[in-house]
Amino acid sequence: MGVFNRRFLCLWNMVYNPQIHHRHSIRLPEYNYRQPGYYFVTMSTQNRECLFGEIKEEKIILSEIGKIVYDFWPKVREHFNNVELDEFIVMPNHFHGIVVIKEILNYRGEDNSRRGNLYCGGGVTPPRRLLSSPRLGQIIAYFKYQTTKHINKLLRMPAKKIWQRNYYEHVIRNDQSLYNIRNYIVNNQLKWNKDVENLKSEDKNIKDYYGKIIDYE
Fold first, then answer.
1. Which of 66, 105, 146, 172 has the fewest CB atoms within 10 Å of its CB?
2. Which CATH class is domain 18-105+137-213?
3. 0.90 surpassed by pTM
4. Smallest Cα–Cα separation from 8: which of 48, 70, 56?
5. What's the start-to-end Cα distance of the chain, in Å?
6. Tens digit of pLDDT for each residue in 140-151?
């Protein structure tokens, strides 16, 4: 993941263009985002501002803000009991990660992940407690909210927007795609100059850019 040892706040001399860089909603309308599976997610900062650090000698050097994002991501699985986390990386103005939503068994041993709710027994005389299997969007919203809260506390700017409203996601459907995405995340800092999230990059088509990474499906 690179070396994380100093604070840096960078602003590129490139103007954010909402007509070019706006991230449209790409949710699959009929897909159940509660169901077990692997999900590749990308979240960008507001206006693609380089809040999280800089790339030096092909390694990410995190700012204090970037360290908050880096340190909080593993805590997501503590909040959601059926979520695991795979590869991830914090880049100067965006975040990549793989979210794994697992099956959850109720007290009868039945899978309730696709139903959206589950009952858990507790103790000898259990009052059954209704839990909700989180949607992917809820997981992302929790992460954004918590990191924004901690960052704004650090900056003493309670109203500052840290993240873009939307995010990119891709449902990983096979092992080759998972391998490609893991490899991309691990090596992302080596290709910052060509990264579509970099405002200086000539490649502005997000769909085509990520499609090249996962086109083995």
1. 105
2. alpha beta
3. no
4. 56
5. 26
6. 999 999 999 999
